[in-house]
Design a protein that fits this description.
Length: 407
């Protein structure tokens, strides 16, 4: 037996197995590429990072029909050039004296590149900024082949929405700190969409998964439904089945962990009825046990709460059974919040927690919460509907992105 012994201990036969040196498990990717996305022609370096000892040979399969054999412990990297755009699944087979380990990495190459200028760059890493991307020659009409990288060729998370095929799309990007230029790659007929809102925003929920798995806590009255939606197939609903109860109940809460300071919260919201003394639907940010009642719909008004219900604007009215696009900025360094409804600025207010205490300029909010009110007049249970929610970092002056010269 090469990798163990049979021994006798106290009259009992024991089989002792020793893992071969060549089969040491890895703690990370066993195969890495120096780029994930690149323009053609692309020379890509692949490296065996498995740390496996006693390597006899390595077989590199580059996903384009070509392969290369290397031998010995020292030859851990190879460089391969892709002249044409495509999506390539690269496989490395590592052979030792006793085993073979296989691992794969994907590299995508693109025929075209477009420089994007970033004005007013921010020192905040991961700041989410949107821009209107116009369709360019060689780009797929549905924008699914676009990718973004920084000056070090590091992929930038992005999300695409509001696509008008062959014309334009709205793209959200989580920019690296102090970026003044980034590159958009496109022109790959094999590329599927890499758009991922969960990698871009602090929190995202459009309910199109058909479940509430994005929320860290889901009260028993919260659900997914398809009867009342803003767009798409689903929207969220926090139902309130107990009339005229002012007490807070966790069954009427959806909570998302965010851990961030200055915030922007926006989404589409609707209530089926206004509460008698409480708001009918609350947007909140929590810092431990301190709760900031950022905005709620109450008695036909759009309000905030700092120990008392206060209107953002006496002129801003809200109706039941009507969708509103709400945006709230929680500017903690200036201890001020701002609110918009359907693009109209409603005003600002000093930021105070529900007990009236001021929100300090160093406050970091642990959680974002939606809460259905426990107070409704009569008839059917009350509903607080939500759709298309995003939570992102805030800076007073946002960067502006625009196409520069082709690179």
């Amino acid at each position: 037996m090469d990798n163990g012994w049979i021994i006798l201990i106290g009259g009992v036969i024991v089989l002792l197995l020793i893992a071969p040196a060549g089969a040491v498990p890895t703690t990370g990717p066993a195969l890495t590429a120096n780029v994930t996305y690149a323009g053609t022609p692309a020379s890509v370096q692949f490296t065996d990072t498995s740390g496996i000892a006693d390597v006899v040979s390595r077989s590199w399969f580059f996903g384009d029909g070509t392969e290369q054999e290397t031998s010995g412990v020292e030859e851990q990297s190879v460089v391969h050039t892709y002249p044409d755009p495509g999506s390539y699944n690269v496989t490395l087979s590592i052979a030792t004296r006793t085993s073979v380990v296989t691992t794969t990495v994907t590299v995508e190459t693109f025929a075209r590149q477009q420089a994007i200028s970033v004005s007013d760059p921010s020192g905040t890493d991961g700041l989410v900024v949107s821009f209107n991307a116009t369709h360019l020659p060689g780009m797929r009409p549905d924008f699914t082949d676009i990718r973004f990288v920084d000056t070090e060729a590091t992929p930038i998370p992005y999300w695409v929405e509001n696509v008008s095929e062959g014309a334009y799309a709205r793209v959200w990007l989580a920019l690296p700190a102090n970026a003044t230029t980034i590159t958009m790659l496109y022109g790959n007929p094999d590329a599927g969409s890499a758009s991922d809102p969960d990698a871009v925003f602090l929190f995202f929920e459009d309910y199109e998964r058909g479940d509430l798995s994005r929320w860290s806590f889901r009260g028993s009255n919260s659900r997914i439904q398809s009867d009342v939606v803003r767009d798409g197939a689903y929207a969220g609903d926090i139902g309130v089945s107990e009339p005229d109860l002012p007490e807070f109940g966790s069954n009427r809460v959806c909570l998302a962990n965010i851990s961030a300071g200055p915030l922007v919260v926006e989404g589409d919201f609707r209530v089926s009825e206004f509460g008698r003394w409480c708001g009918s639907g609350y947007i909140q940010a929590w810092n431990g046990t301190n709760h900031l009642y950022a905005l709620h719909l109450r008695n036909g008004s759009v309000q905030h709460y700092d120990g008392e219900h206060r209107n953002f604007s006496a002129d801003a009215r809200a109706r039941a059974d009507t969708w509103y696009h709400i945006k709230v900025v929680l500017d903690t360094p200036r201890a001020t919040e701002h609110a918009w409804m359907d693009g109209e600025y409603l005003g600002s207010a000093p930021m105070r927690f529900a007990d009236g205490s001021r929100v300090s300029n160093e406050t970091v909010f642990d959680d974002f919460a939606l809460i259905g009110s426990s107070a409704w007049y009569s008839g059917d249970p009350h509903h607080f509907y939500a759709d298309n929610i995003i939570v992102r970092k805030y800076v007073p002056v946002e960067s502006v992105l625009s196409y520069g010269g082709s690179s």
